Amino acid sequence: MNHPQLASQFNKDEARVNWHDETLWWVRTKRDRMSHSLPEWELLRETASQIKNNVLSNLSEYLTQFEKNAKANGITIHWAIDAQEHNDIVLSLLKKEGVGQMVKSKSMLTEECHLNEFLDKHGIDVVDSDLGERVVQLAKEPPSHIVLPCIHKKKEEIGELFHEHLGTPKGNADPQFLTHAARLHLREKFLSRKVALTGVNFAIAETGEFVVCTNEGNADMGAHLARIHIASMGIEKLLPQRKHLGVFLRLLARSATGQPITTYSSHFRRPQPGKEIHVILVDNGRSQQLGKEDFRSALKCIRCGACMNTCPVYRRSGGHSYHTAIAGPIGSILAPNLNMKKYADLPFASTLCGSCTHVCPVKIDIHDQLYKWRQLIVKEDHIAVSKKMTMGIMNVLLSNPVFYRASGKMGRWILKYLPFTIKNIFNPWYKQREMPAVPKESFRDWYIKNKKNS
Amino acid sequence: MSSRNNILASVKNNQPQKTALPYIINHPQAEQDNVNKFREMLTFIGGHIVEVNDYEDIIKYIRSNYNQGQRVLSALLELTSVTEVKSGYEDPHSLDNVHLAILKAHFGVAENGAVWITEDLFPSRILPFITEHLAILLNRKDIVASMHEAYIKIGGQDYSFGAFIAGPSKTSDIEQSLVLGAHGPKGMIIFLMRD
Predict the structure, then answer these.
(1) Per-residue pLDDT tens over the stretch B127-156
(2) Using an 8 Å Cβ cutoff, are A281 and A77 in contact?
(3) B107 Rama sector, left if φ>0, alpha if ψ -120 to 50, beta otherwise
């Protein structure tokens, strides 16, 4: 199913759509309050953008520098050219340690690689430890938002899930109570798992360290208690120097949830004695995307989710309608890099209003890229036949004044005398909309008439 | 090794012409402004400030707020009379029942209420996360205005593990209702010490 079809499913429950829309807009206003409280906000965005431009322009150098320094710190480095290789590396580390269980904190990269499904097939029990991710895992769903994974769920549904899986009393949907139940449930997992996997927010070429940001403390609970800490990162997550973290840690949480900083910004430099840290550097299409001038800047993304919270389409269609690991505007310009045909619908899931571009903390030209993808997708013939035909007809009508005028006249006549040919279920535009009242004359006719009078 | 070389070759082949790194602008503030702002931000993120003059004040605070049955740990020799002080723990899992851990921070950050700690300041890497409540000793003079200044202060410091911690652990994953105490501490106290 494509975005419009999935969105129309989400739209069946109007009250939920309204709640979803308002809640995300509320997060957006929290972000505004934070950004407006810093007079240097725009300068910060520009600085972050320039740092990331530099990273992309010198990435091969930074990658080798990071590898060298991380190794000197006692961290093991792995390279994965695609999702399959990444998943194989994780599995081999689990097998080497001789365990069939793993605790995981949030990592959008592992969603992109479909790691959980892969490990499940190989009999490994994976527990997601971020509360929102645990909720969607219990519901057997993917996250619908990169920062707020279960934002599409109502607390009653979460109460029901916890009743079924964690044995909480039926009908209890109090967030405080449910969070505490999850805390007890997951603490047992943290205490018993020997391998923990986390994502990476930033990795520093200069020092060979990497930073993981969470509010819940789940990445730290997993990583410090386990014997093996696996950290999966996309190759674009590098920063040149430690001091650059100052810029990005100021922007990340303010843009994401309107907090001044996440509760924990943990800097991993060396493993604890007797323990191991493994970093997996994943390409999975990124180095190819780097070569596309129009689309490379999407690699600057720091996964804050601000573009989703502000997007009028995302807020009303829900994250699952994007059928990709990363939803929303940024997901719609990232996914076609991996598979343009499969995700050909996503760049059209936008009004091109540009709000995403304005809130992006690293100044990615998201709405321009959405527009550029559309052109490419049409050129490569990945759109529906009906759309292509309509576009072809529009092209003839709009480029020929005689046809254009004739069709306007015809349209007015049909709307007036044969309205049922337009007001029917076969016209998608008529769904949820009234057709306009028929004007007496076209603007051109009106203009010619009135020009004579003046 | 072939994936490594393939990835690096592909990146090198596709990366655009090199661009320059920007200059990072910093806006330092007066000490009193920093203290006031820190207080305001810490309260905003769910932390709690306790003003103290010396270690004696902290000892009094612990005696009156925690009972004998609760495991209270610290990394400060000055608090030996009221807390368990050890240089290390072989098994981090044994810290699961810690009620309160008291650590010293290098410095605090006014703009967000965070404190910077490194592993050498406490006996086990898991301690600030596994403890039910966390208390941090911070000197008033050790508060910087922003994260830029924070990293100037950190400079080339050598640590195995370091973290900014800002308030108690929290989540809003259920319908955006804020709950303190997700997986880490449910509460955080800053003992703000006068010079």
Answers:
(1) 999 999 999 999 999 999 999 999 999 999
(2) yes
(3) beta
From A201, A195, A196, A165, select the one nearest A181 (Cα to Cα): A165
- Walk across the sheet containing B98-104 and list its strands: B48-52, B187-193, B133-139, B98-104, B71-74, B84-85
Q: What is the mean pLDDT of residues A297-306?
A: 98
Neighbours of B153 (CB within 10 A): 14
Closest CA to B102 of B193, B190, B182: B190
Q: A158 and B174 in contact by Cβ < 8 A? A: yes
Burial annotation B33-62 (CB, 10 A radius, 16+ → b, else e): ebbebbbebbeebbbebeebeebeebbebb
Q: Give me A170's structure tokens.
A: 């039926």
Chain B residues close to A27, C-beta within 8 Å = 176
pLDDT at B11 over 90: yes
Q: pTM, whole model, 2 decimals?
A: 0.94
B64 reaches A (C-beta below 8 A): no
Which of A52, A369, A330, A254 minimizes the C-alpha distance to B147? A254
pLDDT at B1: 59
Helix (H) or strand (E) holding A366: helix A366-379
Which residues in chain B are closer than 8 Å to A130, comparing Cβ atoms?
173
Those of residues 155-184 in A touching chain B at CB distance below 8 A are 155, 158, 175-176, 178-180, 183
> What 8-state DSSP symbol labels residue A288?
H
Joined tokens for residue B166: 């800002």
Q: Do B161 and A151 touch (CB under 8 A)?
A: no
Between chains, do B126 and A225 touch, taking CB under 8 Å as contact?
yes
A58–B7 CB contact, under 8 Å: no
- Interval B38-92: pLDDT, tens: 999 999 999 999 999 999 999 999 999 998 889 999 999 999 999 999 999 989 9
Which residues, other chains included, contact A424 with Cβ-Cβ below 8 Å and sequence gap of 6+? A430
A70 touching B (Cβ < 8 Å):
no
Q: Which residues in chain B are contacts of A281 at CB distance < 8 A?
A: 7
Residue in chain A closest to B168 (alpha carbons) equals: A263
Q: Which helix (H) or strand (E) holds A192?
A: helix A175-192
- Cβ atoms A190, B189 nearer than 8 A: no
Phi-psi region of A284 (alpha: psi -120 to 50; beta: other; left: phi over 0): left
* Minimum distance, in Å, between the CA of residue A302 and any CA atom of chain B: 18
Shortest CA distance from A274: residue in chain B: B90
Window 80-139 of A, Cβ < 8 Å to B = 80-81, 85, 129-132, 135
Sequence-separated (6 or more) residues with CB below 8 Å from residue A191? A225, B93, B96
The maximal CA–CA distance of chain B, rounded, in angstroms, is 66
Query: CA A15, CA A7: separation in Å to the nearest integer?
Result: 15
> A18-55, pLDDT tens digit by residue?
999 999 999 999 999 999 999 999 999 999 999 999 99
